[in-house]
Amino acid sequence: MKLSQVRLLVKNFEKSVAFYRDVMEFPLGFSSEEMQFASFNTGETKIEIFSRENMAEVIGENNLPTDGASQSKFLLAFSVDQVDDVCSRLKDKGAVLLHEPHDRRAWNARVAHLCDPDGNVIELYKHPL
């Protein structure tokens, strides 16, 4: 498993993109207003911006922690060789997935999500499909 990006889950996509592009001066690698997603080239590990609203749709609002915790403000994304195999191992160790591995055609990836004990979202993915 390799940490490939830290995804910031933001309330205001446009302001956040402008901040990291114009103030922090990170080179913008990819941006999609429609998907509310942007990726900045910062070295081996990327910083990505994704709207909280869209992330809630991806993982399902009903899957968010119910202990009063708010949605995670960031997401750790790990590139893995086989999403299904990694999820199976993690479940054997007691991890609870927010949803089973599935293909997200718009992302050209197989993905799964889970939370750490504090409710922070972790994404496991494999590109391309």
TrEMBL record:
Annotated keywords: Metal-binding
Pfam families in alphabetical order: Glyoxalase
Residue ranges occupied by any VOC domain in the UniProt entry: 2-127
CDD domains: VOC_like
Gene3D superfamilies per UniProt: 2,3-Dihydroxybiphenyl 1,2-Dioxygenase, domain 1
PROSITE patterns: VOC
Protein name per the record: VOC family protein
